[in-house]
TrEMBL record, chain A:
Name assigned to this protein: Molybdenum transport system permease
Cross-referenced InterPro entries: MetI-like, MetI-like_sf, ModB_ABC
Membrane-spanning segments: 6-28, 40-62, 74-99, 192-214
Keywords: Cell inner membrane, Cell membrane, Membrane, Molybdenum, Transmembrane, Transmembrane helix, Transport
Subcellular location: Cell inner membrane; Cell membrane
GO molecular function terms attached to this record: molybdate ion transmembrane transporter activity
Residues covered by the ABC transmembrane type-1 domain: 6-211
Superkingdom per UniProt: Bacteria
Entry membrane topology: Multi-pass membrane protein
Organism per entry: Vreelandella arcis
Function of the molecule: Part of the binding-protein-dependent transport system for molybdenum; probably responsible for the translocation of the substrate across the membrane.
SUPFAM superfamilies: MetI-like (SSF161098)
Main location: membrane
From TrEMBL, chain B:
GO cellular component: ATP-binding cassette (ABC) transporter complex
Keyword Thylakoid: no
Organism encoding this protein: Vreelandella arcis
Protein name: Molybdate transport system ATP-binding protein
Superkingdom classification of source: Bacteria
Amino acid sequence: MDWSALSVSLRLAIFTCLFLLPIGIWVGRRLATAQFRGKGLCEALVALPLVLPPTVLGFYLLQSFGREAPVGQLWMSLTGGGLTFTFSGILLASLVANLPFAIQPIQRAFENVPHNLREAAWCSGLSPWQTLLLIELPLVWPGILSATALTFAHTLGEFGVILMVGGAIDGETRTLAIAIYDRVQAFDEQGAAQMAALLLVVSFTTLGVVYGLAGRRRWARG
Amino acid sequence: MVKLTVEAQQAGPIPLNAEFSCLPGELLALVGPSGSGKTTLLRAIAGLYRPQHGRIECAGDTWLDTQRQQSLSPQRRRVGMVFQDYALFPHLTALANVQLPLRHLPTPLRRPKAEQWLETVRLKGLENRYPSELSGGQRQRVALARALARDPQVLLLDEPFSAVDQVTRRRLQRELARLRQQISIPIVLVTHDLEEAAALADQICVLHNGNSLQQAPPETLFRTPASPNVARLLDRNNVFDGQVVEVDGTRRLQWGRYALDVASGLEGLNVGERVAWYLPPSDIVLHRRDRPSQGERENPVAASVDEIIVLGGMTSVALRVPHGDMLRFDIATHAVRRNQLTPGVAVNVSLLAGGIHLMPGHGVDTAPDEKRNTP
């Protein structure tokens, strides 16, 4: 069992969820409720990582993370370090690759909140912020849970993008999925099997817990 | 000035040219067909819709004045709004729904106040139910309690009885009438149900394509609609075309071969002028065939029965007069039997002079239903 790979995977998944959730809520709500020019384009961009081969996405990210590329330069000026083959680099790549998993379930959930509930809240004297906190978020909670579960599970299993951007540096960028590949390459089938089973259990448990929680709402039973 | 006054004008996308007012304690019904702008106007009062031009004042405060670029947000208007499908918060219990608008009160006071409101709408004991666990009528009452909990300066009801069955509707209407005695703020009710408007409202405002055509108490409106169009929107039949004539030095209304006596309204018109007129069905008196009826000598008209439609205890009767126009009225079904009214039978009726309402300046053409009856 490669414990350091497991640690990298878990850290990556937790940070990805933490950073993506506020973004998912903000963007998902905007896409669900606002009408603006270029909305279709935004939705297409959000969905792009779903259909793009991970190696293609990874290639472009690698290009833009380089020391001569704008993102790499910006990161360098902010932190003094590089993005390629670092944990920060794979985290940034993971944020991009998981955009659709974080945004789409939340967007669908916001779309299902009837607009007149917001209006009823305003007529009850609630400010837009109070409306978001007291009315909308409790109603879109299942969507947020789904987004978290999908993002978490998908990050644990992400392979192509991470390999392209991060390589397989032990304790820094080698995730569990990559470690499994390495073990198979080294004919260590038992090691690979252990880690694969662990990944399966963790993913299944995460999804199970989340969907179980989402179903336990008395008010939603009609 | 504590009343509510509303003025709204715009060319599109929803055309509006409306003006109405409502006194405290008064119930104003906005009636009109779908797309007449009723709900839009209600939303404009609540601050959920902003007309291009307009002015809304309530209880002395200006809520909207487009000339001065002034528009208060819904949060600052203190309106109690009951939405058409109630818009209850599904994740909150009945009590929590009613508590939400009470956030201006200190926390310990909110719960007892919300319980009090639920008791007022007769929902005591159902405080902990979620909306999905309540019947349609109970949901409507929670919505009403929530609207009133805001301590509003105006109560707005958007088709509040349309989503419940007939029996519940009657009961809720009675309860609204009862509740009105406890609150003294303007109430604006949007409805397409004329019977409901007539039963509940002190004032009715008739809307068509965003235009407010007439505002008056129901009995005034139903007896003296301002135009054939208003009469048609109020589902009034008996709108006809006549001509002012002079017979033996007296002004009369020529209708087919009859020169009708009219109690008032002819003085201001010129002889020869064409004028649309309306007669409430209650002012058509059917002559009994066995003995003389009261008022029999007033504008007697001979006609033949064209259509008899029995609707339970009441029967809708259509009579065709010799020149083709159709008189419609309802009488008790037993009276139809007693008079042996069947299609084709010749009958005599009196058109009471006091009921004839003239609508000068309007052609009868705006009432297509009546036109169709003319051969």
